[in-house]
Amino acid sequence: MRIFRSLMLAVALALALAVTELAASPLPSVFAKYAAGPAKILPLQRAFPLDEPVELSELRARDRVRHARILLGGGRQSSVGGVVDFPVQGSSDPYLVGSKTTMLYFTKVKLGSPPTEFNVQIDTGSDILWVTCSSCSNCPHSSGLGIDLHFFDAPGSFTAGSVTCSDPICSSVFQTTAAQCSENNQCGYSFRYGDGSGTSGYYMTDTFYFDAILGESLVANSSAPIVFGCSTYQSGDLTKSDKAVDGIFGFGKGKLSVVSQLSSRGITPPVFSHCLKGDGSGGGVFVLGEILVPGMVYSPLLPSQPHYNLNLLSIGVNGQILPIDAAVFEASNTRGTIVDTGTTLTYLVKEAYDPFLNAISNSVSQLVTLIISNGEQCYLVSTSISDMFPPVSLNFAGGASMMLRPQDYLFHYGFYDGASMWCIGFQKAPEEQTILGDLVLKDKVFVYDLARQRIGWANYDCSMSVNVSVTSGKDIVNSGQPCLNISTREILLRFFFSILVALLLCIFFSLT
Fold it and tell me: Is 123 a catalytic residue?
C-alpha cells in the first residue's frame, strides 16, 4: 500500500510539473498583420544615446574592422514551414550613439531548456549564430547599450547536446571555418579577425524557440533543435562593454546559418526579409519568410560568392548616369557589391566614389555652402535637404534600380553657424568591394529569396505593420514536419522525465 501511494504521488508530481511547464509557455497570439513589437519579430536596437554625436572617424574605424572580418572570409560565420518573425531594435543613424540606441540592429532569441533570452546582432554578412558561454573568459559582463548581458549555461540546459568531431556537421564546418577538435572530442572553432579580435568556443545543439506563422490568423509558439556556437573566449574589441551584445545572429548563405538549418528541414521557408526603421528611434522587423509589399524589384544573386553579392551596373544622379567604367563593379574573390546589415555606412570603390561626390556637390553648389569637416565633405543647409539634393539610383542587373533619397546618402552631423550640417554618408572603400550598409538599407523592405537566388527591395515605412506570405509556408508544413510536433515531443519528454524523477524520489522515501 505504501508503494502504491508512492506511485500515485509520483504521477501527481509529474502531472503538476507538466502542467506548470505548459502554463509557463506563452499562448499563441492571433493577428493578420505583423509589426515590430514584443512578439517574436526580430527587434532591432541601437546602442548609443540620442544626444551624443559620434565622430565619423569612429564609424569608419568600426566599419574597417567589420570589413576586415568580411574580406578575411573566416570571421563571424552565419543564418515553407511556418514563417517566423522577430522584433528588431537599433538604428542606422550614425549621428546617434549610447545607452538606448545603436548604429547596429539587434534582436532577441531564446535558446535552451529552460529557455534563456539573448540579445544578438543581426548580420547578413556572416553565417553562424553564436552566443557567449557561461564559461567564457575575457568576456564583457555589462553593456553600454542599456541591455542585460546573458550567458549560455550548457550544463544547465537538459536539451543541450555537444557536436563531436566525428559528426558530419563538424566535417562540413571545416570547409568554411577554423573548426578544430578539442581534447574531449568536441567540435570547436576559433575565429580571428583582421582587427586582432577573436572568439573561440565549440559547436553544440539545443532548442531554438520562435513564433511560427502558420496561417493568416494563426501563430504558434514553436521550437526546433539547431546547431550554434558557444563562445568560451573573446579578445580585442569583442571584450569591450560599450557596444557589447550576447552574440551574433548570422543570416549568411552557409549551411550552418539558422536560415539554412531550418529551411533545409522544411521548418521555415528558404527566404528571409527585413525592414530597418531609419529614424531616430530605430527598430524594425526581421522575418524568416517573405514580406509582401507592392513595387518590389529583384536582382539576381551572383553565384559562387560567399556573401550576398549583387551585380551593380551603374549609378545615376538626378537621372544622369555617371561616367564610371562598369568593370570596377565586376565581382571576383576580392571585388563586387555586398549587401551587409553589419556595416553602418556605405562604401564605393574609389573609381566610383569621386564621380559620385562631384556629381552631388555640383548639383547643389548654388544652393548650399560646401564645407570640409574633419576631412569629410559636408553641406550647410538652411532648408529641407529633400528640396535641394538630387535623387540617386543604384542600378543593378535584372533591371532593378534602388532609388535613394537624400537621407539615404547623407547623414545629419549637427549644426554649424546656425545652419544644419549634412555630410556624405558614402565613403571611399579601402578595398575593392562596394558595400551597401544600413544607411541605404533602411526604410526599405529587403527580401532574400534563397530558393530563387535573388534579392528584392521596395521603399517602405518600417514603423508600419507588414504583410507576410504564408502560402508557401503552409505547403511545406503540410508536406513536411510541422513545427508544433517538435514542441509536443519536448513536452512529452519533460513529462516522462518528471515521472522518472518523482518515482525515484518516492521510492527513496518509501525505503527510508
Answer: yes
